[in-house]
Specification:
Elements: E1 3-7, E2 16-21, E3 26-32, H1 35-45, E4 49-53, H2 77-84, H3 95-113, E5 117-121, H4 123-130, H5 139-148, E6 152-153, H6 154-157, H7 162-179, E7 183-187, E8 191-195
Parallel strand pairs: 1-4, 3-6, 4-5
Antiparallel strand pairs: 1-2, 2-3, 7-8
Helix pairs in contact: 4-7, 5-7
Length: 205
Amino acid sequence: MKFIGIDLAGSQSRPTGFCELDERNNARCMVLFSDEEIKTAVKQSHGKVAAIDAPLALPVGRHCLEEHCRGRSHFRACDLVLTRMRIRGFPLTIGPMRTLTSRGIRIARQLKLLGVSVIETYPGAAQDLLRIPRKQYGLEVLQKGLTDLGVKGDLRRRKLTGDELDAVNCALVAKEYASGSYLAIGDPSEIMMILPKIIHTSKNT
């Protein structure tokens, strides 16, 4: 079985990280751009679960991301849970997040039509729970942290981009989701954000 991780960019002109992970934690990573490239990569992987780093649903009561929705909630239940966990998130109504949210919802809908189970995740939060450094602290230490967790394949062959490394984390969450061992936060009437259930440690922590 294959598990897909997608570190989605808000624009098709910017790089999206993509990871295909198998049951033995062999990772195949690449950088993609267009919606069509993402759909093609998912189809070719035959993955059945895809974890996307992007908001895939709006807050209850908010039906759009336009200005006339001003006054509605800027945060979903899962975003508020992250805050209580002292994990920084971003309101999906600020400029760059609006475009990412719009694209995330669109991509999720397209992948579901392919028969793929789509979940929302947040690699920054996953990295905090896994106790490995976020990419802001250096790509080499993040790649080593993921390698210490047992991820192989491209991580042992070449240096990955930050987008690819976050996609690896998304794919790990997709694998845990498929196994039934995961943490789900939020409100089911909006969306449940999926995160690692067990706090792991790397060799450096």
